[in-house]
Amino acid sequence: MLMEVKNQIKISLLSIKYAIMREMLNKISFITNIVFMIINNSTFIIQWVVLFSIKNDIGGYSLNEVLLLWGLASSSFGVSRFFFKKAFDLSTTINNGKLDSYLVQPKNVLLSVITTDVEPSALGDMLYGYIVLLIYGITFKLFLLFTLFSICSGLIITAITIIFNSLSFWFGKSDLLAEKMDGFMTSFATYPGGIFKGVTKWILLTIIPVGIANYMPVDVMRNFNLSYLLIILGFTIFIVTTAFIVFYKGLKRYSSSNLMIAKI
Amino acid sequence: MTIIKADHLYKTFRIKEKEKGFKGSLKAIFKPKYKTIKAVNNISFEVEKGEIIAFIGPNGAGKSTTIKMLTGILYPSKGEVSVLDINPIKNRKKLAYQIGTVFGQKEQLWTHLTPYDNFKFFGAIYDINEKVVEKKINEFRELFELDEFINVPVRNLSLGQRIRCEIVASLIHNPKVLFLDEPTIGLDPVVKENIRTLIKRLNKEYKTTIFLTSHDVGDIEKLCKRVIIINSGKVVLDDTMENLKYHYLNKKIVEVKMKEMVNLDNEKGITILKDKGYNLKIEVDTKKRSVADAIKLLNPDNILDINISNTPLEEIISDIYKKEAKK
Predict the structure, then answer these.
(1) Which residues between 141 and 200 in chain A have a beta carbon less than 8 angstroms from any beta carbon of chain B?
(2) What are phi and psi of B104, to 5 degrees?
(3) What was the ipTM of the complex prediction?
(4) Which residues make Cβ contacts (< 8 Å) with residue B293, sequence separation at least 6?
(5) Min CA distance, B97 vs chain A (Å)?
């Protein structure tokens, strides 16, 4: 079992390495994608600087803490898009019958599929997160927590997109639904959690779990809270497991296709 | 020893039906209609160890669907299937270590990598030690004559070279059964012949059981000793190639060049295929008239040149398809 997990991780990393090699074939595009993503993310902060010049406290967050929230949102977005890019395209993969070549390999189909491509600009998102962390005031403990939460939050985003994209096994096309869900996760992740109250707050802790993926981690980084940390870790395990279950349940309904397909 | 067993296998697909035009599209949203298609309809067969079997049929007959059920890609709707005594659905990963697959229409290789890097990657997929992979690559390098392009990115290779690499990638883990789904599609005759020779050698040297689907009669005729023909999801013929030819080759094609013209109209058992005066091409139904008798009609002294051949296998298979379609 342990050996199987080790081999699976080895293959997924090898797959990511080859995907990076493919992107690096176009050196200029690879570098500019990363640099421009960092610049693009920086521009969003300006609106917050303007807002905080009017008001000192928004939803219980100071400018510095909004920066931290942005950093985490950007970094976790980067983790999901860089390592698991194909998860966001899973619906098309299913509908076009492109799972065949993974199904005849003795490896986990879902992991093999989602790690076959990388998004270079997402590397810019990840780097941007750490630049923001430097501005916020980095400590070793904060660095470790930030990295852990970037991974957890990245996994939560990926798992949610897998669940919604996997609905394609039942309904044919679910890419739009998955895109919308992904959009909600990304846009809510950049607002201070404190501004949402009542039903909205409840929704953000359950249906669109941005509260667990972003607000709680920021709270832990501001004031360490063990129970919050356990909730985040527990939820990550739960949602990732659910994604695997939904995908594999759907896989039984996979109908393949005879399209002419090249792995590019 | 039975290697592949399909027992009363069924696969149905539910397909949405839509009436024509915009109105039809609107109707389909509120009141969708579905149609059930039986892609595979009660198929049973067995394949023995070391066999090269041709699994053929017209487009949409259910060949690829069957292959996909045998390799664990698709779940059967009903029936049992086992390959090397492994249930492909329950033990997909276990089976994957024992079989190789080549889909002529789908690429499994990374196109920006060289064949060498691809083979290493496939070695890792099958958890093979790097030294063993290296040894295996060297072995296939010679057998498949890969030296010329083993370090060239796959996207720069010709189709024939790519297919060769696809086959090598599928053999890196020493599979006991190789599933080839139209491996020679789109290849020129020379490359086709090379691929056939390689498949034959593979079967001879490694005793690999080969399960082949192809529309190319040359593949079937030159490689397979047994043929299963399916049509509309059903097995319509499961026999040896010898029997197929023996039972269906009751027609001979006679081409003659003559000194004087001969009229063969309305002669029993003779069909004129081509009549260009002194050059004649006829088909003799040997059940109704012997070839010798047909030659007598032409008068041997009148014949300058003669060629007698069997009906091409392509026509035989096409006839079987047509007969089944009429039923």
Answers:
(1) 172
(2) -55, -25
(3) 0.82
(4) none
(5) 6
